[in-house]
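Supplementary Methods. Inverse-folding protocol.

Structures were first reduced to a discrete structure-token string of length 205. This string, shown here, constituted the complete conditioning input.
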């Protein structure tokens, strides 16, 4: 009997060692992508991890902490892949494009980045952007405002794009969607919509 209890204790210890915080967060990211924020509960996560909810609480105290950790991981990956060009403009574009693509792939991230006060993940984006604003020579008195405008624009446009994608059924391919929009713009009245018609071809890109 004692040997049997010892075996169970060893098995439990091995399982707890394998269930790391990193493992939990990565599983949460997959669940969020599949089911959205409403589908993320400790019970569903425990089922996916083939463990008990108590084992998850050992590493993460609540859902808010789990969402923050998942957002941090996704944004860290995004910033690690952002452009390392020598041009500040290219680096800003790299961050913007990376965040856009990330929120397109993980719509729940946009909601987390828009929280107030800003989560750590948003501050990481802000820090990356403000370095480029400084490199462009913006006066110290304007750096915060300029970076805030950039960050707000990137997040709001990315969230709107993700929301549009979630509402559309079936989900359209981006190239096809942009081509259809460009075609509509090209048919607009040239006298009333000169600029819109002029950029229609660029919209396809």
């Amino acid at each position: 009997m004692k040997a049997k209890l010892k075996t169970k204790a060893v098995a439990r210890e091995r399982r707890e060692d394998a269930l790391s915080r990193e493992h939990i967060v990565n599983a949460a990211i997959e669940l969020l992508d599949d089911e959205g924020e409403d589908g993320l509960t400790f019970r569903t996560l425990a089922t996916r991890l083939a463990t008990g909810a108590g084992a998850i609480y050992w590493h993460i105290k609540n859902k808010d902490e789990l969402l923050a950790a998942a957002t941090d991981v996704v944004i860290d990956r995004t910033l690690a892949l952002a452009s390392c060009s020598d041009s500040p403009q290219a680096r800003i574009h790299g961050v913007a494009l990376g965040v856009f693509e990330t929120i397109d792939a993980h719509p729940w991230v946009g909601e987390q980045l828009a929280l107030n006060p800003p989560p750590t993940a948003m501050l990481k984006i802000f820090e990356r952007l403000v370095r480029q604003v400084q490199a462009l020579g913006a006066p110290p008195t304007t750096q915060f405002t300029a970076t805030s405008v950039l960050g707000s624009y990137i997040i709001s446009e990315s969230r709107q794009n993700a929301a549009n994608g979630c509402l559309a059924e079936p989900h359209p391919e981006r190239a096809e969607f942009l081509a259809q929009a460009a075609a509509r713009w090209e048919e607009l009245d040239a006298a009333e919509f000169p600029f819109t018609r002029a950029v229609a071809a660029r919209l396809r890109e």
